[in-house]
Automatic annotation (TrEMBL):
This is DUF3098 domain-containing protein. It comes from the Bacteria. The chain crosses the membrane at residues 15-34, 40-66. InterPro entries: DUF3098. Keywords: Membrane, Transmembrane, Transmembrane helix. It comes from Pontibacter flavimaris.
């Protein structure tokens, strides 16, 4: 009987996508801090930053749901 030595929940593809999603999330939050309007009510704090954060969460969702072809 063969023993599976790789007991990780996800494959390499999933982890790479998760790291990319975390980087996009961090970028979105960083962009929100660049807003010079009071209380972050400018374009960067209200529109662009949250859209990039939303894209980061979408990447994270895809990273979790993606099936790695190398993992059996």
């Amino acid at each position: 009987m063969e023993e599976n030595k790789n007991n990780l929940a996800f494959g390499r593809k999933n982890y790479v996508l998760m790291l990319a999603g975390i980087a996009v999330l961090a970028l979105g939050f960083f962009i929100m801090t660049l807003d010079t309007e009071p209380y972050g009510l400018g374009f960067l704090g209200i529109t662009l930053g949250p859209l990039i954060v939303l894209a980061g969460f979408a990447i994270e969702f895809f990273a979790i749901m993606a099936k790695d072809k190398t993992k059996k």
